[in-house]
């Protein structure tokens, strides 16, 4: 047993392949590793390890994707004129702010989650926003974030030693204990190949709207909060020595890689 190291293992987790001896150890390993115990149907398998069972699993996965896509296409909301007008207005307002906002079809996870709105009276976006803290394996979803709010103010309830919530502060203590100058805010650059993932570094002192200008956004922004002093695998464009800084005009409009991931997610 990889949890207690005392008894002979009887079970193996389909998700992380950890061995356990009892139900208690299974629950402990799920809690410690934040594991849900559900097999990852999209996990990478090398050609040497690929078997007939893996082929059958992939075939069933594609069938599930097909059924999900067909159900989404038949959904009454897809054909609703009001929905289409609302999305068109949202994309058009974003284009006026030099933001390329792309929306996904009904049935996709990010489409269901997105609560972004535009207030015509205030001429202001209220964004659905996701904050990811990779060093603590924590994620938080914010709704109705005004576009004129600075990133520093957005992060205060999470990583500020004084103003943050005590429970959140305890969970993100790596961030709250670090100097604010060590905090970096990154956003993934969309429409790049999977083997060339890069991130833009955002300016915490500027508003959310200013940071999103010239960017491609799929449904809503996802911000990654990392620390300079801790190692991470996120490569910032223009700082890896192999590519120049991003030119927003050169971004492609292809959504293939994003849609593939979202289809798998929504299934």
UniProtKB/TrEMBL annotation:
Residues 242-258 have a biased composition (Low complexity). SUPFAM superfamilies: HIT/MYND zinc finger-like. Keywords: Isopeptide bond, Metal-binding, Phosphoprotein, Ribosome biogenesis, Ubl conjugation, Zinc, Zinc-finger. The keyword Ubl conjugation applies. InterPro entries: BCD1, BCD1_alpha/beta, Znf_HIT. Pfam families: BCD1 (PF25790), zf-HIT (PF04438). Required for box C/D snoRNAs accumulation involved in snoRNA processing, snoRNA transport to the nucleolus and ribosome biogenesis. This is Box C/D snoRNA protein 1. It comes from Myiagra hebetior.
């Amino acid at each position: 047993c990889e949890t207690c190291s005392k008894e002979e293992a009887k079970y193996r987790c389909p998700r992380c392949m950890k061995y356990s001896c009892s139900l208690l150890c299974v629950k402990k390993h799920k809690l410690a590793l934040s594991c849900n115990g559900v097999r990852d149907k999209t996990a990478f398998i090398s050609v040497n390890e690929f078997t007939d069972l893996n082929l059958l699993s992939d075939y069933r996965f594609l069938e599930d994707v097909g059924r999900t896509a067909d159900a989404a296409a038949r959904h009454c909301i897809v054909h609703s004129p009001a929905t289409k007008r609302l999305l068109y207005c949202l994309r058009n307002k974003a284009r006026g702010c030099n933001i390329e906002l792309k929306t996904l079809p009904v049935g996709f996870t990010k489409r269901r989650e997105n609560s972004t709105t535009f207030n015509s009276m205030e001429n202001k976006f209220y964004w659905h926003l996701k904050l990811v803290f990779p060093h603590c394996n924590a994620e938080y979803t914010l709704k109705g974030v005004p576009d004129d709010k600075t990133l520093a103010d957005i992060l205060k309830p999470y990583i500020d030693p004084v103003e943050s919530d005590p429970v959140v502060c305890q969970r993100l203590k790596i961030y709250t204990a670090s100097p604010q100058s060590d905090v970096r805010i990154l956003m993934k650059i969309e429409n790049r190949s999977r083997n060339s993932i890069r991130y833009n570094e955002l300016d915490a002192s500027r508003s959310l709207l200013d940071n999103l200008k010239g960017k491609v956004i799929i449904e809503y922004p996802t911000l990654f909060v990392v620390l300079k002093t801790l190692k991470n695998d996120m490569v910032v464009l223009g700082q890896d020595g192999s590519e120049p800084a991003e030119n927003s005009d050169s971004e492609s409009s292809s959504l293939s890689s994003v849609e593939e991931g979202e289809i798998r997610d929504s299934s």
